[in-house]
Amino acid sequence: MDIDIRKADIRNMELLLEWRMRVLREVFADYDDIHAASVRENNRAYYEKHLADDTHTACFAFVKGNDRIVGCGGICYQKEMPSPDNITGTNGYLMNIYTVPDVRGEGVGRAIVEYLIKDAKERGTEKIYLESSGAAKSLYREIGFSDMYDYMKL
Q: How far apart are CA 64 and CA 102, in angstroms?
């Protein structure tokens, strides 16, 4: 499948929010629609701030030759304390990587991730993190990601 990845910006706000909510409903099986309006508005505030200050890159995947969106993704840029494995402290957090079910396995997710990695490298980002569903782990490993065994969350 020929995929065209296009960077999204503030002008795409409603589309970004629509797709973000779609991702959240799929990822969080116990998603509570009671809080959907608050989550949507908090995401709007996030996009307004981080697209404007260029600390987030968002994109959509289109089937080449038409305007059908078949996936989306994003990367948040942040700073951590510099260390031997990240001299500058720049890092990116891949998020919101999503492909519509009927084209999964056809290279859409890979195209999105590779686009965002290229964006990160052009910015001098030394470390990229992500959280993955079980279904996508093999793709991320093929691209070069490795498991972080000592990672914890509170």
A: 16
Domain 3-143 belongs to what topology?
A: Aminopeptidase (3.40.630)
Q: Burial level of 148, CB count in 10 A (0-12/13-18/19+)?
A: exposed
> The tokens 């080449």 sit on which residue?
64
Which among 81, 78, 56, 58 has a CA at the least distance from the CA of 5?
Answer: 58
pTM over 0.85? The answer is: yes
Return the domain boundaries, the chain.
3-143
Each residue's pLDDT tens digit, 89-148:
999 999 999 999 999 999 999 999 999 999 999 999 999 999 888 888 999 999 999 988
